[in-house]
Design a protein that fits this description.
The complex is a heterotetramer. Chain A has helices spanning about 1-5, 20-25, 60-65, 65-70, 75-80, 85-90, 95-100, 105-115, 210-215, 225-235, 250-270; strands at about 10-15, 30-35, 45-50, 50-55, 115-120, 125-130, 135, 140, 150-155, 160-170, 180-185, 195-200, 210. By secondary structure, chain A is an alpha+beta fold. The mean pLDDT of chain A is about 90. Chain B has two domains: about 5-80, Beta-grasp domain (Ubiquitin-like (UB roll), Roll); about 90-155, [2Fe-2S]-binding domain (DNA polymerase, domain 1, Orthogonal Bundle), CATH 1.10.150. Helix content of chain B is about 35%, strand content about 15%. Chain B has a five-stranded mixed beta sheet with strand order 2-1-5-3-4, with helices on both faces. Chain C is an alpha+beta fold. Chain C has a single domain (about 15-90), classed as Ubiquitin-like (UB roll), CATH 3.10.20. In chain C, about 30% of the residues lie in helices and about 30% in strands. Chain C is globular, with a radius of gyration of 14 Å. The chains are: A alpha+beta, B alpha+beta, C alpha+beta, D alpha+beta.
Chain lengths: ~270, ~160, ~90, ~750
Amino acid sequence: MLMTASHGAGKILAGGTDLLIQMRSGRVRPGTIIDVKNIPEMSTVVAEGGGFRVGAAVPCMHLVENKAFSAAWPGVIDGINLIGSIQVRGRATVGGNLCNASPAADSVPAMIAAGAIASVMGPNGRRELPVEEIPAGPGKTSLAPGEVVTSFYLPHRPPRSGDAYLRFTPRSEMDIAVVGVGVNLTLDENGVCTAARVALGAVAARAMLVPECAAALIGTKVDEAALEKLAAAASAAAQPIDDKRGTKVFRIKVSGVLAKRAALVALRRAKGEK
Amino acid sequence: MSKQHVSTVINGNPVEFLCQPQQTLLDVLRNDLNMTGTKEGCGTGDCGACSITMDDRLVCSCLVLGVEANGKKIETIEGMSSGDGLHILQQKFLEHAALQCGICTPGILVAARSLLERNPDPTEEQVRFWLAGNLCRCTGYNKIIEAVLDAARVMRGA
Amino acid sequence: MLDEVGKLIDPPLVRVVFTAGFSNSYTGGVREFQVRARNMRGVIKQMDDLFPGLGEVLEEDTNVSVDGELHEVVYTQPVYPGSEIFFMPKLEAG
Amino acid sequence: MLTKTKFVAEDLKVVGTRPIRPDGVPKVTGMAQYGADYSLPGMLWAKILRSPHAHARIRSIDVSRALELPGVKAIVTKDDFPEQSFDYIGPDRVAVNYWHMTRNVMAREKVLYEGHAVAAVAATTQSIAEQALALIQVDYEVLPHVIDVDDAMRPDAPLLFEDMITRGMTPPPTKPSNISRWAEFKTGDVDAAFAKADAVVELSFKTSPVHQGYIEPHACLARFGADGQCEIWSSSQGHFFVRAYTAKLLGMNLGDLVVHPAEIGGGFGGKTVVYVEPVAAALSRKTGRPVKVAMTREDVTRATGPTSGSSMTVKVGATKDGKIVAADAVFKLQAGAFPGSPVLNACMCSFSPYEIENVRTVGYDVVSNRPKAAAYRAPGSPIAAFAVESVLDKLAQEIGMDPVQFRLKNAVKAGSPTFWGPKHAHDGYAETLQALMAHPEYQKPLGKNQGRGVASGFWFNGGGESTATIHINEDGTVMLATGSMDVGGSRASMAMMAAETLGVPYETVRSTVADTASIGYNHVTGGSRVTYATGMAVIEACQQIIKDLCHRAALTWDVKDEDVIWENGHAKPASPEVGSFEPLSLKAIAAKRAVTGGPIVTESAVNAGGMAPGFASQFIDVEVDPETGAVKVLRAVCAQDVGKAIHPSYCEGQIHGGVVQGIGWALNEEYVYDKQGRLENPGFLDYRIPVASDLPMIEALMVEVPNPNHPYGVKGVGEANIIPVMAAIANAIERATGKRLTQLPMSPPRVLEALDA
């Protein structure tokens, strides 16, 4: 209601680690700032139907320190743990990371790979949609005016499942992804991949689910041949630009390299190896 | 915009202030409360010189609005040494010459204390990754890492 | 200067050298000179007599090395028989 | 003059130990005040309006609407600064030109880089000042711009100064250009010598400009009184040059301006320039109220002087037994908006570690639409060394010699000639190479995709004018003050040298930095000169105090002055014949100061000479990820001749800091400009300086070859350490991958491109 009342000049304040930088540079001049950190649904992590209901305004460090969630979704935690620095992660939230809609957001590829479903409240009630449908381009989301992402639902994990997120950055920390890859896969008892989701970040106008990458893994034992096909599919799917952080050629190649490496980490985790 | 009233606790002392809604907590600390120990290096959360803890959570005060401090417990560098003596970390930073110009030191000390509260026995790599958010241009980090590890040893009584 | 028996003896002969670039602009390309002086003041005065105005440049714009030891230009800096007095662009740094 | 005391290392009690610095507690408790930490009642806030264009003529500036905004108290533009005459004052290589300087502080006819200051507003609050900036209308005539040094030298390049004729060429060129200066240093016959070489390597290099990266943005507070007297609190690398430049730009007598040294949050050469002080003073003069100016990080990256970007070609020839016979180099350095890159330093330092008969180095100082270049740690030498040390590495490979042995065979020593000036008078280079070879890791083989690179560097180290004052307190404690701004612990080293010379405990010496009204002139803190030159002033002051103390003891004992000597903190009879008097401590003499003549004080000044150069040699191990081009530094072993380490911890700290700055310069730091010449990465996020998790522990090897011209053997330490780093990493990458990179930074996209080529 507050959002609609502010006629589009309203801005949601969760962690604020992107919003305050944009306000300081004058890129954004909000009429009203709406602090959502005290709304229960948005600020808690609860088990629900075998999966997890994660509040959109839960600070990253809160999630990283949640033992159950970290055990279930190590890949999502990989992504969250690369946002900014310890200080930034003390404030930044997964909801903010998604709705700021930077193509290079670190938690988004892992959340997409995990198959997370976003719950959105707006003037005409609540609706659910997969996370990958929310980013619409650099700084733009598909949300209607007045709509707010309140929480995410991460589904139950079948046995022998593993997820992972890797990114390329020139520095080991305090950096923005030049390339980001999230992989989530499930194996059957013979080690054959029965389900997979692969998402790329920072190599297109928005983070994206890449079905061709999943197809390269499903039905295989995620062997060298499958990994080569996965790498080729990732490089093919990438439509990067040259910008101050990386070149097109570099992003296309490294998308493939990281897809392979992330798949191997997810594979190890699916097999229960550390 | 009219100022908002905020009541908070800073370094154990109840503090009330008025601030503009868009005013950052860093700006309030330095320019309204004259607590200039917390430094501004960038204003965009990229250097860590303005690190404080809010409800024991390590954050950049340049990325927190003054109004968000309402009802919170803030700890800054000025609160790190109790009346009679320096905190072990402050003492070790001096002993190891872990600072040269010292502009990054307040932020790093607050961050290091926050680390040791969570992990009393960190490895070198854990210290390096925890402090990755605090930029230093003078020391090359060597002596900072050594001082934090040494302080951790003493605090563990090892 | 008086020797032990009080006889005025000539100041020692010293070698004055400039860098190629410096000599092109100030001493008509000649890089080496022989002058008689007891200290830097004497050297500068002799060179200024040969090239009027050069003294000011030597005092303001150069460092000098006496037998390889680098110095600021100070009048009282002693020079010794056969010393190599090398004037060069002032060494400054950030 | 300084009486030369031959120091003997063994009997030093304080020098060489690691005491806690006297100014440490305020810095670890947040009490220390830096440039932005000062405030005064009635203070106004100032913001600076900066040009959005890289190159434009200013037709007009309309401040009327901004002045009407409630809370705005004054606005200054170029009209508030007197015109300056156009001449180069002072030494050729670092001449100051006030005509340029006033334009760099506040644009006059043209803006010459994005971020160039055009106007400044003083208002009662920061937000009002900010809003006022948006109300100032500047009518720009946008001009084509040029940034890269090679582009700026093209005949059709847009000219920053329509009348600039290259200096240093005889005969001078007829056509104006962006080349402000040409210089050549040569010895022997280079072209003939190449014929005698068995192996010749010639490579071209390009390096990006890089910023000093100090964490504290420039800031100051100025208070101009109605009586024309002004005080400034500013963080800089020398409050005396701040006073000199500010007074000149405002047309004031030096005596009317007092500059107080705030603590400085890093400088590395970048704070030897005035940006905000003249603006704050001009606004304070106009409003009669204190004015604070503080730059943002974006201002610092966009509008303050980095060191030059460069384009270089180096050609070296050697015989197969490893003797370098010929060296020829061209260095083209970006000066930025106004003339004054460190190109002469680059030309002189390039081959200085090596004894070569035939050498020619040519330098070009080239202006371009970027902030005026400022000093950055041994300015010019690291740029030249990246090229020279890479070529020497390739040459050593071609004649099949170990890179350290190859350098050792040509290493200069005391007596070796230089190609730019007098012969060397000091050893120290070979010793740094021997330290590397003695290191246990040097011979150890490395793994897959790993490589070890070797490189060396030379730096002059500075001397110059310094002043120190000492007064003995009534209780015998010592008040020591110098005029040298202390960035990295020099208050500690000064106190140590004083305590050693006076023979008193270190804790009884209080060491401070005095403002410009309280002490004689001090040259800038830079050029690795403070411990050397200001140290000499401190020691001379101590010797004068000792003479006074002996005189007072002589009075007390009714003996002649020369019958009294000073030994570990006490006046003693020179010999038994003088008398069997109890030695008098400093404390005892101080207690009787009134009857023996009054307060015990002295001020002594030096124009220090006899400084020895700084040599550094390093080997760096890296691992290259073949699939992403990422370079990880595994080990950095850095030997440097420190003469005699007064405070070893701070010497090590200088080496650690310089090497890590070099690693950032080598791998990640660069400016990214868009088509309009606007900076795309003005903050600490995308201008990537190394973070703690990027680095191993740096190993500093302090090689001590004492300098006989200094009572404690001191040599400058601050700068030589950054010089070899970029070349050492380039050489390591070549050993790891077989690819020779010749462009800085060696970022992952560039390494990957080379790997896939």
